[in-house]
Design a protein that fits this description.
Low-confidence stretches: none
CATH topology of the largest domain: D-amino Acid Aminotransferase, Chain A, domain 1
CATH superfamily of the largest domain: ATP-grasp fold, B domain
Order of helices and strands: EEEEEHEEEEHEEEEHHEEEHH
Largest sheet: 7 strands, antiparallel
Shape: globular
Radius of gyration: 19 Å
Strand content: 25-35%
Length: 288
């Protein structure tokens, strides 16, 4: 997993969009997702790719889409685009064909532990999303029950926190409740599975779309880009945890003094290598 793919154009296929990480192409009435090695943080795409990262993201999403398909339908069709006549060596092991959906404009975040932006918010306001939490909680402390803290899904700029009521007002009560129920169900399923593998799933986010009138899971699932993972054997609440995700990159960027409003700095080679190692270690722990 050492070659680097920052972007790709595929002859004969029209580009649908370039996301922060994925290049997406029209493929008949479907979509072709290609996971590049771009990495984003704080809503910026960083100038330095992580070699092989896209392959890890793709493989983990394929693994979890298959494992959770009985909990909720998803958009995954195949991770072999050759079945649709697409034989491009550069996208091997980093692509999948998926159903095209009407994307629901919310990110469904489930938090099982007080970490990351939730911890920063709690220190300032005592709140996480719309939840007023007890005083005296420690960083990385486990919640009694997972919190559902949705945000808007912004194509550019920052996602914004929303209350469940705001989500209901936009989508209707039935759809909003389905999204909350399925998001928490998916989180609990993966949390329990990963604990048996020696991994804590601290928080995660999901995206959903509508296909033929039915809500299905889309985008990615339980990857180091969409989730926060900690080794169980080193977990001690009250301090930052060892991580197996891109929190390592976020913390590095915060340490540089970058203002998060101007273009981000390059990542040094040692940060790139240590990030790459984290992604590959997580993949092996989860799948093997």
């Amino acid at each position: 997993m050492s070659e680097v793919l920052e972007k790709i154009d595929i002859p004969g296929l029209e580009l649908y969009k370039r996301g922060k990480v994925r290049d997406v192409f029209f493929l008949e009435d479907k979509l072709l997702f290609v996971a590049t090695d771009r990495i984003s943080a704080f809503d910026w795409v960083l100038p330095t790719p992580i070699p092989g990262k896209g392959k890890v993201l793709n493989a983990l999403s394929v693994f979890w889409f298959k494992k959770t398909e009985k909990l909720v339908k998803n958009h995954f069709i195949t991770d072999n685009p050759a079945e649709f006549g697409i034989d491009v060596p550069e996208i091997k092991e980093r692509s999948m064909v998926v159903e095209k959906t009407e994307v629901i404009p919310f990110e469904c975040i489930v938090r099982g532990y007080l970490a990351g932006s939730a911890w920063r918010s709690y220190k300032k306001t005592g709140m996480v999303g719309e939840y007023k939490l007890p005083e005296g909680l420690r960083e990385a402390e486990k919640f009694e029950e997972p919190l559902f803290t949705p945000t808007t899904k912004a194509e550019a700029g920052h996602d914004k926190d929303v209350t469940f009521k705001e989500m209901e007002d936009k989508l209707g009560s039935e759809k909003a409740r389905f999204l909350r129920e399925k998001s928490i169900e998916l989180y609990l399923f993966a949390r329990d599975y990963l604990e048996r593998k020696g991994i804590i799933l601290a928080d995660t986010k999901f995206e959903f779309g509508i296909k033929d009138g039915e809500i299905i899971l889309i985008d990615e699932i339980f990857t180091p880009d969409s989730s926060r993972f900690w080794p169980l054997d080193s977990y001690i609440p009250g301090k930052p945890q060892l991580d197996l995700d891109k929190e390592f990159v976020r913390q590095y960027l915060l340490s540089t003094g970058w203002d998060r409003n101007s273009p981000p700095p390059e990542l040094p080679p040692e940060i790139v290598e240590r990030t790459k190692e984290r992604y590959e270690k997580l993949y092996k722990l989860v799948v093997e």
